[in-house]
Design goal:
2 domains, alpha/beta, 594 residues, six-stranded mixed sheet, 10 strands, single chain, 21 helices
C-alpha cells in the first residue's frame, strides 16, 4: 500500500515535468513484458513437437493458446522450424522494445534533469529578496547541486522499479491465463516477502531524509568556510571550524553507512526468501495438484521471471526510497521558491528623467519598525548621502529604493509612477549598486566590467571609458595582461579601493542613471578614503548619486546629507549646514576626527 502511495505521489512530481512521455516509457515496458511472455510460451509447444514429433495441441498454454491458433489460421505447419522462428521473432521484437524502453528512459531522464535545473534557476532568479535573506544558504546550494543528482537517481530507480512492477503484472496476467493457482501462489509469496521488508523500507526513507538535511548542513558549513576563509585563517579559528566540518562529514558517513547496511540486508535476504517461495510453489503444484509437465515448466518459467522482477523491484524501490528524501526536499524547496516569487507591474522604465519620491514610507520586520514615515524626494542627478548610526535603517532605505523590498506603508514612485505598477527589473537596470564588499567575479577584468560582453571595438571603447571615469584605467593598463588579467579567487587580488573602483566601472559601463554606493563600514585608510571621495566628486552631477556613508569625510561635497536616526530622517541639508545646525551631526563628524 505504501509502495502504491509512494508511487503515485512521486508520479505526480515526474508527470508535472514529462507529461505523456511517462506513458511512453511505461508503455514500452508493457510490450517488453508481453513479448517476453509470448516468447517463453512458445517453449512449451516446442518441447511438445520435439517430444512427440507430431502435431501440437497446446493445451498447457491455457489462454495463451490463441498464439498457436493464430499460427494455424495462417496455415503454417506446426513444426520445430515454425515454432523456433516465431519464438525468435518474439524475442527480437522484445529486444527492440527493450532498447526503446531504455532509450526513452534515458532521453526523458536527461530532459527531466534539464527542466528541473532550468526551472530552479528561473525561480531563483525571481526569488523575493526579503525571503532570500531569511533562507538557508547551505540548503539552497545543496538542493541546487548534490540534491539534483540524487533526484536524478530517484528518477532512475523509480522508473526501473515501475518497469519491474509492470513486468510482474504482465507475468501475473500471463500466469493467470495459464494457471490461476500458480499466479495466486506467486502473489502470496511476493506479498509475504514484502511484509518482511517493510521495516527496512521505512527506515530507508527516514534515513534518506536525514541524509538530505545533513548534506544541507555540510554545504552551509563549507560555504561559510570558503566565504570567511581569511578571518578563520588569520585568527587560527580554521582548525576548530574544520573540526565542525569534519563532524558533519562523520554524520553523513554514519547515515550513508546505515543506508548501505539496510540495502545489504535486503539484497542478502531476498534470494533465500524467493527460493523458498519457488520451492513451495513447485512442491504444491507437483504433490498436491499433480499438474502436467508442460504446465509446470511454463509455470516455472513465468515464476522464475516474475520472481526475478519482484527482486529487481524490491532492489530498485529501496534504491528509490534511499533517494526519495532528496525528492521530498526538492518538492518542498520548489514550493517555497514558487510561493516566494516576485510579482511586478507592467510599466517599463526606459529612462529616469525627473525624481524618485517616497511618501510616508514605513517598513517593519514583524514587530520591529525599521523605517518610520519617511518623506523624501530625490531629484535626477542630485547627490545624496545617507548617514546615521548602525541599525538606523540606511540599508533598509536603499533596499526600498532598489525595489528589493516593498514599504509596509506609504508609497514610492519614480517619475510619478508608483513602484507597484512598474516592471521592477527595468527599473533595476537603471540602477548601479556598489555594495559594501565590492563584487568581484573569478574572471578577467574585461568580463568583470562588461559582464561577459563580446569584445567588439564599440564595447572595448565603452569599457575603456568606464575605466577612465572610475579612475582605474591607468592601473589596468599597467598590468602585464591588462584587461585580460584574471581576478578573484583564481587570480590576482586587488586592494579594497581598486575593487571598489572596478565595481564602479562595471556600473558605469551599464549606462545607468542612478548610482548607489554603499561604503564599507570598516575603517578605510586615508588613501582609499581620498580615492572614494575623488570618485564621488567625479560622478556628482552626472548621475543620481546615493551614498551610504560611514566615513563622513568622503561626502563633504554632496548636494544633501540625510541624517537617519531610529528609522526617521531627523535632519537634512548640505554638509556645512548640518555641521552648523545639527549637534548630532557635529558630534558624529568630531568623533571621526574630521
Ligand atoms: N531580515 C531582517 N529581519 C529582521 N530585522 C532586520 C532584518 N534586516 C535588518 N533588520 C533590522 O533592521 C534594522 C535596520 O537595519 P539596517 O540594515 O537598515 O541598518 P543600517 O543603518 O544599514 O545599519 P549598518 O550601518 O550597521 O549597516 C536593524 O535593527 C536590523 O537589526
Amino acid at each position: 500500500m505504501n509502495y502504491l502511495l509512494g508511487l503515485t505521489k512521486s508520479f505526480r512530481f515526474f508527470y508535472a515535468f514529462l507529461k505523456y512521455r511517462i506513458f511512453i516509457i511505461l508503455g514500452a515496458s508493457v510490450f517488453v513484458g508481453i513479448l517476453d511472455g509470448f516468447g517463453l510460451a512458445m517453449i512449451v509447444p516446442l518441447l511438445e513437437v520435439v517430444d512427440k514429433g507430431g502435431e501440437v495441441e497446446g493445451d498447457e498454454l491455457g489462454s495463451l493458446s490463441f498464439v498457436l491458433d493464430f499460427l494455424r489460421a495462417l496455415n503454417l505447419p506446426m513444426e520445430v522450424s515454425t515454432i523456433v522462428v516465431v519464438l525468435l521473432l518474439f524475442f527480437i521484437l522484445k529486444g527492440v522494445f527493450k532498447y526503446l524502453e531504455g532509450f526513452f528512459r534515458v532521453t526523458y531522464q536527461q530532459k527531466f534533469m534539464r527542466m528541473i535545473r532550468d526551472q530552479n534557476a528561473d525561480m531563483f532568479c525571481y526569488y523575493k529578496y526579503s525571503d532570500f535573506v531569511l533562507s538557508d544558504a547551505g540548503r539552497i546550494q545543496n538542493t541546487f547541486s548534490a540534491e539534483v543528482l540524487r533526484v536524478n537517481q530517484a528518477f532512475q530507480t523509480y522508473f526501473l522499479s515501475a518497469q519491474a512492477l509492470i513486468m510482474i503484472s504482465v507475468y501475473l496476467g500471463l500466469a493467470f491465463g495459464v494457471n490461476p493457482l500458480f499466479a495466486l501462489l506467486v502473489s502470496i509469496g511476493g506479498l509475504a516477502t514484502n511484509v518482511l521488508f517493510k521495516r527496512i523500507y521505512k527506515q530507508t526513507k527516514v534515513l534518506s531524509r536525514q541524509l538530505s538535511n545533513e548534506a544541507n548542513s555540510f554545504h552551509g558549513i563549507l560555504m561559510q568556510m570558503v566565504n570567511n576563509f581569511k578571518y578563520l585563517k588569520s585568527t587560527s579559528s580554521i582548525v576548530p571550524y574544520t573540526g565542525k566540518l569534519k563532524q558533519q562529514i562523520k554524520e553523513i558517513e554514519r547515515v550513508q553507512k546505515r543506508l548501505g547496511i539496510l540495502d545489504s540486508i535486503l539484497q542478502a535476504a531476498r534470494e533465500p526468501l524467493i527460493i523458498l517461495v519457488v520451492a513451495g510453489v513447485i512442491f504444491i503444484q507437483v504433490n498436491l495438484y499433480g499438474d502436467s509437465l508442460g504446465s509446470i515448466i511454463l509455470s516455472l518459467l513465468f515464476l522464475y521471471r516474475a520472481l526475478s522482477f519482484v527482486m529487481a523491484m524490491q532492489k530498485q524501490w529501496n534504491g528509490f526510497l534511499g533517494h526519495s528524501g532528496a525528492l521530498d526536499q526538492m518538492v518542498e524547496f520548489r514550493d517555497e521558491l514558487r510561493n516566494s516569487q516576485e510579482s511586478f507591474g507592467e510599466v517599463v522604465v526606459d529612462k529616469f528623467s525627473r525624481d524618485i519620491e517616497l511618501r510616508n514610507v514605513s517598513f517593519s520586520y514583524d514587530d520591529l519598525t525599521v523605517l518610520k514615515g519617511v518623506d523624501l524626494t530625490i531629484e535626477k542627478n542630485e547627490s545624496i548621502a545617507v548617514v546615521g548610526e548602525s541599525g538606523s535603517g540606511k540599508t533598509t532605505l536603499i533596499n526600498i529604493l532598489c525595489g528589493l523590498i516593498r514599504p509596509s506603508f506609504g508609497t514610492i514612485s519614480l517619475d510619478g509612477n508608483n513602484y507597484e505598477g512598474l516592471y521592477l527589473p527595468s527599473l533595476q537596470k537603471r540602477i548601479g549598486y556598489i555594495t559594501q564588499e565590492p563584487v568581484i567575479f573569478s574572471d578577467t577584468i574585461f568580463n568583470n566590467v562588461t559582464f561577459w560582453s563580446k569584445k567588439t571595438p564599440e564595447i572595448l571603447f565603452r569599457f575603456q571609458e568606464a575605466l577612465k571615469k572610475a579612475s582605474i584605467y591607468d592601473f589596468v593598463k599597467s598590468l602585464k595582461n591588462t584587461e585580460e588579467t584574471i581576478l578573484g579567487t583564481s587570480g590576482i587580488n586587488l586592494s579594497g579601493g581598486q575593487k571598489q573602483r572596478l565595481s564602479i566601472a562595471r556600473e558605469l559601463f551599464k549606462n545607468v542613471d542612478i548610482l548607489i554606493l554603499d561604503e564599507a563600514t570598516s575603517a578605510l585608510d586615508t588613501e582609499t578614503e581620498k580615492e572614494i571621495q575623488a570618485s564621488i566628486d567625479v560622478l556628482r552631477g552626472e548621475y543620481t548619486l546615493i551614498v551610504v556613508a560611514h566615513r563622513l569625510s568622503t561626502i563633504r561635497n554632496v548636494d544633501r546629507v540625510l541624517l537617519l536616526s531610529e528609522g526617521e530622517i531627523k535632519e537634512q541639508g548640505t554638509f556645512d549646514e548640518l555641521y552648523i545646525d545639527s549637534e548630532r551631526f557635529k558630534r558624529m563628524v568630531s568623533s571621526q576626527n574630521y
